[in-house]
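Sequence in, structure out. First:
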Amino acid sequence: MVKVISTILELCSFVIPLFLAMLFLLRSTESYNEAYDSSKLKFLGFTKSQHSAFFRIIGVICLIVGLFVIYRNYFYEPTPEYQESLDFWKDIENKSSSPIKTAMVLGAAIAIPARMGSKRFPGKPLAMLGGKAVLERVYDNCRKCERAEKIVILTDSAEIMEFADKIGAPAIQTSPKCASGTERIVEAFDEINANFVVNVQGDEPFISPALVDSIIEAHENSKVDLVTAVSKISDGQMLLNPNVVKVLRGADGSAIYFSRTPLPYVRGEPNADEWLKRCDYWRHIGIYGYSAKAVARYAALPESAMERCEMLEQLRFIAAGYKFDVVETEYESIGIDTPADLAAAEEFLSRI
């Protein structure tokens, strides 16, 4: 953007003087004489010939200025000393990390946290699914997003770092002390260098690029700091499944709590299918969008009791009084948490 503005100003520096020169020099004597009677110069004592000569002199000055600028910009060869000085400051500018320049390169990024040490399924990011590693499928789908300017894998595993290099995916080594994907984002945020980061789980091989774009779009449209996604639950068994995280939403539609149990609880009704007739229930899709401000907040927040009980990292924000804006989607998440999930994903892949 700065280069575009600079080019426009460079063109204006000689186009405007040349335009004025043509305007004053090509104007006929008759036209100047017609304008003389209403001219302020007449009341200053200028004669008709002096009136026209005055503007023609201005035209000559504009012509000289325009031609000088053209010569200076395109034909003048600076002395070696001056050229050395120009090169020096150009190099400084290229290396500059000023706020203005930094703001220009910032945008939305996708971070894919991945670790090999899953308790239920060790090594799952590199488990093969339809001839490709799960992590590679996640990365390939993220590359189809239109609103993200960069994609990066975050991991504490040397094996995943090596795999990322093999498939040409940018990767950042994070500490093994990070207890969640969000903590990896917090640790690597300066290196990610973005003003909004979408956390896509490394075990979501069928993640929807359109959904990721909608998370970014929600931030772009309303400048919200926290965004996540939900889909409506229509199955009683899913409602009761503790591996399916449910989202309790406020009157404004925002997410005010995340839980492995159904919320709200329907008192006196044992049939979960009847619950779905009484109230809308929402399944959480494990994708989050964090602004730079939200990342800074998370880094300063202590782990909460709710987070420890539910084992859900987003509850750290909720416990501190924050809400998540919500994007509704029909996308059904197919995460890989266990070897059985991988087998189900293979079956799903064979049908699409």
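Second:
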Amino acid sequence: MKYIRLINLASVGVFGMVLSVAFCDGFRTRRKRMAVMVSMAAILLLQGILYFRIGPDMIESAYPLITHFPLAVVLCILERRLLWPVISVLTAYLCCQLRRWMALLAMVLFAGGDTMQNTVELVITVPVLLFLLRFIAPSVRSVSHGTVPMQCQFGLVPALYYGFDYLTRIYTNMLLEGVLVAVEFMPFVCSVAYLVFVSQIAERERVRVRMEQTQNSLNLQITQAVREIEALRESQRKTSIYRHDLRHHIQYLSACIENGLLEQARGYLKEVYSEIESSQITVFCENEVANLIFSAFSGRARDAGIPITVRANIPQVIAVSESDLCVLLSNALENALHACQERNKRGLSGTIEVCVSPKNGKLFLEFSNSCDGNITFDHGIPYTDSPGHGLGVRSMCGIVKKYGGMCDFSVKEGKFFFRALL
């Protein structure tokens, strides 16, 4: 029994020290690994000597001084850090309780004694250690690169448990005697840690949603820019072709005129003119960004057979940045075009109307499109649970709010309206 307990004491020492080192991130060099191994061997040797000199019970009381403290000092020196090595030692101590609890469970289930507890702890030491090294240690090490408040928050529960375990189980019998404050302390700590965890998860989810909205806006800007570039390239390509073929057109027209085929010449001129007009970007307003967006979406609506009317008076210089204007106009037109395309799939007609103009020093926008009227609103904002939808509306509202403006969504007489003043 005495030797089983000694071997178990050595195994838990190795277990904790290996985990403490694994939770740190500065032992990639051979010199540091050798220093750690020598330090661990010295600590184990000290434990063995004291085990026979002062007994196992006294060793448990002196464990912080003969194991945890020197190990933390060695790690601080090798890592050249003060806080995280201490946290790693405390966290490793917390992980050691996995062995003890599993062994206690085996004792209860099989009505065993101290020998069974020590034996079970020995048997499960290596599997539990390998599991923690493989799946837990990398995540713990990643916390070491975080901010000091993050590290402190991570190490708070292990530190509280360390103090609680020694105060109520080793240095006193408060836990065994059932002192209510001692019994309820760790459930209290778990409750507080859980609430903090929930609040942080909620905050991270809000940050994730904001980042997703930003990413969606950036993707939309990139997509729109690609479309505009393609439209310009296509216009340039057709212009180059017509310039190259201009002499052929002139020769054909000259031949028609010389042979008195005036009607044929007029028809040919109309055909060439219509082709040229279809290849160039329509001018809707002075603002170059808005003009490109209106031109691109007008072309898409025309290709889809959706009538679109754009009345825009946007100066070249406005208070709204080009990127925000691009996202706002593109989202509004994309939503209107999508709604009309869905109606077309069901054999219904759809139209889009756009009106943008300065108003009292601000920019007034009104977009309307045909709709079925079955739109769900949440606090005045159109809501949909379809995957990938709804981000555009949030981006639009975010831009309007950014400039201290106002926006409104409504449905009236079979039309969906989006109005904004910013």
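Remark: The chain has a mean pLDDT of 85.
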